[in-house]
Amino acid sequence: MKDYKLPSICLIVSTREIPEKLEMALKSGIRWIQYREKDLSRREILDYAFKTRKITKQYDALLTINDYVDIAIAVQADGVHLGQDDLPIEAAKRIFPGIIGISTHNLDEAIEAQKKGANYIGFGPIFHTTTKKDALNPIGYDILSFVCKELEIPVLAIGGIKKQHLQDLKKIGCKYLAVSSGILSGEVKRNVEDFLKFFQ
Fold first, then answer.
1. Which of 9, 64, 94, 161 has the fewest CB atoms within 10 Å, i.e. is most exposed?
2. What is the DSSP code string of 62-92?
């Protein structure tokens, strides 16, 4: 399996954050963007994915497309992030040469993802989140800590992560985060700076 050097913070953006908040985050030091959009047509998502790819290239930042392997291929994204009900990892690997991550919610899913060749997993929700309408119950620190120790691939903590959690997440051995509103709500530049103090 190809070894990818991933930045510690993956910022998840939707269409409403493009281009203003996206550019502000990149200017402030974010170097990994995941474009996630659930409410638009595939054609509209493709258009915004092209715009996001153009902007991320200007900042030498990684771009991951959520859910859609075909769109990731079309815009020459660096990665694709799959859900449990999306294209299976082994099928995605046959057609997509880049980084493949998958959302997981328990230890069994996490181990299975590693076995099948995922380059990283998203693990959560760690805390309560309003970003996803169908979010599961929060997992908390203990299980996250255990999964981080058990897996050899990067484990991205996701779900409701705010500034006040960063010190404790670092203490339990978490090295990677996937964040949305924790950075995009309020002053983006200041939020990025605060996150980067703990996760560079």
1. 94
2. EEEEES-HHHHHHTT-SEEEE-TTSS-HHHH
Q: How many domains does the chain have?
A: 1
In a domain, 68, yes or no: yes
> Which residues, 6+ apart, have CB-to-CB distance to 44 below 8 Å?
15, 37
Q: What is the pLDDT of residues 62-111, one digit of tens each?
A: 999 999 999 999 999 999 999 999 999 999 999 999 999 999 999 999 99
* CATH code, 39: 3.20.20.70
- Residue 160 structural domain: 9-198
Q: What is the dihedral of CA 40, 134, 188, 172, to 10 degrees?
A: -140
Helix (H, G, I), strand (E, B) or coil at 194: helix
Rounded to whole angstroms, how far apart are CA atoms 144 and 142? 5
- Cα torsion angle, 18, 118, 109, 31, sign: negative
Q: Which is it for the CA torsion 83, 99, 93, 96, positive or negative?
A: positive
Q: Report if residue 4 sits inside a domain.
A: no
Cβ neighbours of residue 10 under 8 Å, at least 6 residues apart?
32, 33, 34, 64, 156, 176, 177, 178, 179
The DSSP symbol for 134 reads: T
What pLDDT is recorded for position 85?
93
* 29: in domain: yes
